[in-house]
Amino acid sequence: MTDIKGRDAEQHTEDNGSPVDESRPASDVVLVVEPLLPQRLRRPSDALRFFAALIALAVVILLALIAQETLKGLESDVTEGTARAPGFLAGLAGFIGGAAVLAVPAGFAVERVFHRDGLRVAEGLIAAIAGMVVSFGLGEWLVTYGPDDLHQLFTGNRSNVEPLNTLLTSVIAYATAVRINRRPTWRTLMWTAVAIDVFALFTGVAATVLGVIVSVLVGTAVGFATLYGIGSPNTRPPGSAVVAALRRLGFAPAGARRIEDDTLGSRRYVVGLRDGRRLDVTVLDRDRQVAGLVYRIWRRLRLHTESRHRAIRSLRAELEREALMAYAAHAAGANIPRLLGTAEIGTDAALLAYEHIESRPLEEVPDEELDDDVLRRIWEQVRIFHDHRLAHRHLTGESIHLANDGRILLLDTRSGEIAAGDLLLRLDIAQLLAYLGLRVGPERSVASGVAVLGPDAIASALPLLQRIALVRGTRAAVARTKELLPSLREQILALRPQHPVEEEVRLERFRPRTLVTTIAGAFAAYVLLSQLSQVNVGDLLGSAQWGWAAVAVAAAVLSYVAAAVVLMGFVPEKLPFGRTVMVQFAGSFVKLVAPAAVGAVAINTRYLQKRGIPPGPAVASVGASQLIGLVSHISLLLLFGYITGSQAAPTLTPSRGLVFTLLSVAVLILVVLAVPPLRRLLTTRLRKLFSGVVPRLLDVLQ
């Protein structure tokens, strides 16, 4: 969430939100120490709605281009249907629609100004002006430079039709920016006026179906873009409202201080009570529910049902989930701060009040303090959870705390599950193994888990020791420590060498590389089919000389064999001949969607890595084979050119595209070399990649 306005200074307020009056008795004043909340916020929900409108706009235009005849038929039906309306009714609709579409926004503006909410009206006017400019600009572009198909679909080849209706776009942008949809009465009036106006446009043949739909979508996108750019008024309740809610729960707060937000971005307060006790209060803000939504949706699409979190939950559902997990964990006997109460704070927030226990998060505990006894106590708490079928699902250094009295506390149970299945419990074990492995090493991590849970439970997590199964922060750390997961697997297998190894559990529906491959394959198929559509395949096959075709096929097959032999010649390790030939054949398909040399180098390098050859030697072998192939190719060109008597062109003029590409690459290289962090990163990566190239070439020559 981005703050638009606000200062980092701390505010001291009473529980009613007013400044502290020092003349009043101290017993009536509750000091709340917290940074001043910003007056305006950029809400992620507005950005998401903006991008959703853009996606819908792209989909509509794409469908219109694909189904042009269908759209033209729909356009004809709409025109004929509205033309049957009586002239009096059409004229009345035009008058009422034109007046209402202006009167309703004006009436809403007057109502808001009367209630001293003129700033919202100003935001709406900014959105309306922006919508008018965008609509006019897009319309002029379509008329002057746009494709003929789009021009015809937007205007119907009628001179009196605007591609995008400027008035409609502005009104929709205004209605979106003032959030008129949150007011049921005004929302009904607004959309009724828009419907009448659109009907009048159709009866007057002054708009097209596509133009109206796109005008609405563009107006919606402009409205949400304005809301995100300017920001929305901050509706988060301040600390004084939190204190007031605690009073309604029966507590007697004496003071409150805001502390660091939790791992999920929720506000936290430490509240002192008059009887000397303290509370840890977590505040769930409604506008935080969509934070990270894109990432959660991506995970929801990518992962199977049991291993994923729900992408969207309401504020009430989030509150009930955390409270239920807290009560269940406490009833199970786990060390968790006791939940003392929950309450709503108005309509935009809710709180959970826990007992306060002095503790430190494990990430702040030095590694030397993580002795075997601490590790044992961590695993014991996990065992208590699992014995009662509770999955924590966020076992990280932020959620595992070491209390001052030596107890281990498991906090942040909002992501947990009750009545959890075996998969979720095994995911907990895999996550904790990985996190402790990062802190104390794989050997101690596995040994401490086995001492508490037993070898069978730890071995059950072996198929889930994969990056995709870990929490986001742990996953990033594991990516930097690539040897961790293999080391954990080795330690677990060493415990039960005779135990059959279970296959890796497939948590993903698909992998990103699969998605990229599918898109690239679809693009290649589109290019191939578009080329074949220009050729009469029947005539081509009928006139073909099949003898020479067989020779061509044999020569093509031999080219793959030759490429495989060349690659095998530069690799000291033994490679299977058949598999190597098939890799060269696969490389020919990669060349359809990638530059020829790049595709061949990439697929051959990946093939050698799959055969167990390190990246450096693999690059050296492939690079040497490509270099020899280039020298041989140029030599053959020169030889056959000499034999046929042809001469090279006296000059070689590169194309503009090639010159632009070379200059761009040169500028990029200069930028990388000029920025020290980028230069060090590039040097480190290249040194790791090519450190074994020279020894590798010497091995090949020997």
Automatic annotation (TrEMBL):
Alphabetized, the UniProt keywords read: Cell membrane, Membrane, Transmembrane, Transmembrane helix
Pfam families linked to this entry = LPG_synthase_TM
Could you tell me the superkingdom of the organism this chain comes from? Answer: Bacteria
This protein's GO CC annotations: plasma membrane
Where found?
A: Cell membrane
Q: Where is this region: Disordered?
A: 1-24
Topologically, how does it sit relative to the membrane? Multi-pass membrane protein
Q: Which InterPro entries match?
A: Kinase-like_dom_sf (IPR011009), L-PG_synthase/AglD (IPR022791)
The membrane-spanning stretches of this chain are: 47-67, 87-110, 122-143, 163-181, 515-534, 546-571, 583-603, 623-645, 657-678
The record's listing under SUPFAM superfamilies reads: Protein kinase-like (PK-like)
Keyword Transferase listed? The answer is no
Which PANTHER family did the record assign? UPF0104 MEMBRANE PROTEIN MJ1595
Protein's name according to its UniProt entry: Lysylphosphatidylglycerol synthase-like protein
The opening ranks of the lineage are:
Bacteria, Bacillati, Actinomycetota, Actinomycetes, Streptosporangiales
